[in-house]
Amino acid sequence: MKELPPEFQMEYRAVSCKHLPELQADVDQLHATNKIHNNEVFQSYIADFKYQAPKDLPEAKFVIIVAVSKPIAKIQFQYKNKAHDVYIGSPYYESGYNIEMVQESLRKRLNLPSKFKLVHNRKLHLKLLAVRSGLGKYGRNNLCYVGDMGCWVNLYAFYTDYDGLTDSWEEIETMKYCKTCNICLNNCPTGAIREDEFVIDISKCIPLYNEIDGIFPDWIPKTAHNALMGCLKCQLTCPGNHKALKGITILEGMNEQETQMILNGNILEENVQDICQKLKFLDPEDACRKLKMCDPDDFVLILPRLSRNLKAIILREE
Ligand code: SF4
Ligand code: SF4
Known about the structure:
- With 318 residues, this protein is α+β, with helices and mostly antiparallel strands.
- It is 28% helix and 15% strand.
- The protein has helices at residues 20-32, 40-46, 99-110, 126-133, 183-187, 207-210, 256-264, 269-279, 296-315; strands at residues 10-16, 62-69, 73-79, 82-88, 118-121, 137-138, 144-145, 153-160, 249-250.
- The chain has a 4-stranded antiparallel beta sheet, with helices on both faces. A 3-stranded mixed beta sheet has the order 4-3-9, covered by helices on one side. A two-stranded antiparallel ribbon has the order 6-7.
- A hairpin with a 2-residue loop joins strand 3 and strand 4.
- The radius of gyration is 20 Å and the shape is globular.
- One iron/sulfur cluster (SF4) binds at residues 141, 188, 190, 192-193, 200, 205-207, 231, 233-234.
């Protein structure tokens, strides 16, 4: 079984399953104080979260939260003799590794005897688990920062029936930088980050709109769009990402013809494969759940979003 390629960093913490009710209590508290927004798209992302040992490993002793570096990407579009550098958020392009590699590397790092299981689980609030485990700290923008990797990480949770791990459980903490910093508050183009409230107003967060089909709501300023998928206004100048910023992935650029085809939302069949490969694009609806290369069929599905988002950046229109 293959391990993670060496250019990716990996860190982890183990949390005893005894803490699962406390995790549930954290989430219940957020619900009780109306801090989890009822936005339909956001709710669909978290609807099936469960804070109990999974059915496929009821005897689980620990849940291990793992962070693997996943830099943001930058791609250059040529349009009308001008080069446009456009960012792609960390979750939206193919990372160069998969869950099996993460699992194998973790097994090696833990020195886990083969008789013990390591079962991947997606039904947990991973950022909260990372912060509670001490692996990461929250930023004011509600993202989870993990050491030098900043907030550009993929998080994974694995349950194990091995009981020889050290339990790591901490109070919820924010980065020390945030005590004296307002950069993300000032840079957020929609007011999603609030001065008087730690939990951001997720209904104003741009990725919730540029990940899915449809017309952007009128209240998003035309100048707000800044990434082909996702939004990086609260991340690019964040001190917590200072070191991670040096590792941006540079993708192969798009020529005038390719850019125009994406803007038109109409790509000639013979160009689809090439453009998919250059973008290393993931289906955004799937991106947080499963890592897979974009194949031409998926690309046709996401092309309208891509076209709309690129127009919003290059042409400043919807
Ligand atoms: S920009 Fe500043 S306040 Fe916002 S998350 Fe980063 S360090 Fe914290
Ligand atoms: S992702 Fe964009 S819209 Fe959301 S909080 Fe950050 S800057 Fe604001």
